[in-house]
Structure formats: C-alpha cells, structure tokens
Amino acid sequence: MAEISVDAKHIYSFFVLFLFIVWILIVVSFFMDYKRYSKRLAGIFQILKNNKLLHVNDYQTLEMLGFWGFGARVMVLFLILKGKRVKLTHTRWLEPEACQVLLRGVDLAWVKNYGCKVKLGSVLLCFLLILTLFGYDY
Predict the structure, then answer these.
(1) pLDDT of residue 94
(2) Nearest CA among 113, 88, 112, 109 for reference residue 98
(3) pLDDT for the residue numbered 55
(4) Of 29, 64, 71, 80, which has the fewest Cβ atoms less than 10 A away?
(5) In angstroms, rounded to a whole number, what is the distance separating the alpha carbons of residues 56 and 81?
(6) What tens digit of pLDDT does each residue of 62-112 get?
(7) What is the pLDDT of residue 110?
(8) What CA–CA distance (Å, rounded) separates 131 from 20?
(9) 38 pairs with which residues across the strands?
(10) Residue 39, class by beta-carbon neighbours within 10 Å (0-12 exposed, 13-18 middle, 19+ buried)?
(11) Where are the alpha helices (DSSP H) in the chain?
C-alpha cells in the first residue's frame, strides 16, 4: 500500500484554498441577498422617506449602484439597528431611535446576518492577504 505523504506546504495550501472558497461563498451569498431582499430594502427606505427621516437625495445614488449600493444601504440599516447615528449630510443625521420605532414591526433579522457576513468576509479577506504576503516559502 502506498503511503501518502502530506507535508506542511500541502496543508498550508489546502488551508488557504479552504479560506478562499469560504470567502467566495460569502460573496455569492451577498449576491443572493441582493436578489432576495432588494425590493424589501426599497420598501424600508420608502417608509423612512414617507416619515421625513430621509430624502430621496440621501440614498438615490446608492440605489442606482445596484448590487454595490444595496450593500451600503443594508449597512446603514445595520448601524441603525445597532443604535448608531448615521451621517447623511454635513448637518443631518439619521437617528436610530426614530428609525427603530418606525421599523418595529418589520423583520430585519436578515440585516443583522448581512452585517455579520460583511464582518466575517472582511476578516477572511484581510487574513488571506496576510497569508499571501507572508506565505509559506516553497
């Protein structure tokens, strides 16, 4: 029976490949969230606009960016859910208390999941970059 030799460089390569695949899956899940929740997100921003907390100018550019703007708008909601103020212009802020009262009946669990995926994806990407810079010498 042939013995399989797995040395450190193969383990390192498999580890980096595994992290890269996980990162790609996270990016694909971002696109799936965009397809699944973009209309719901537009409705949430419409609620905020109807209650005079947002103006169309505040998020119109982000809406036109499609997938990339979706991520930015979700992160605005993520910050609001965490109780943080969001700066809209030099003089206007979006206060979390007012938004949370308006969005009390809306299911926003997916926003929290999206925010966690952004954090995990960012950490993975930084870790992969570090592994690339200071990688295994073959």
Answers:
(1) 84
(2) 88
(3) 83
(4) 64
(5) 21
(6) 888 899 899 999 998 999 888 888 888 788 888 888 888 888 888 889 999
(7) 93
(8) 11
(9) none
(10) exposed
(11) 8-50, 56-64, 67-81, 96-102, 109-133
Helix (H) or strand (E) holding 103: none
Residues forming beta bridges with residue 86, ordered by sequence position? 94
* Radius of gyration, CA atoms only, the chain: 20
Closest C-alpha to 42, from 29, 54, 31: 54
Judge contact between 15 and 124, C-beta under 8 A: no
Residue pLDDT, tens place only, 32-55: 999 999 999 999 888 888 888 888
Q: Other C-beta atoms within 10 Å of 45: how many?
A: 20
Structure tokens at 82: 């965490």
> Encoding tokens for residue 108?
């926003």
DSSP SS3 for 87: strand
How would residue 117 be classed by pLDDT, with cut points 50, 70 and 90? very high
38, amino acid identity: S
- Measured between alpha carbons, how far is 99 from 77 in angstroms, rounded to an integer? 9
Sequence length of the chain is: 138
Residue 113's pLDDT is 95
Report the b/e string of 123-136 with b at 16+ CB within 10 A.
Answer: ebeeeeeeeeeeee
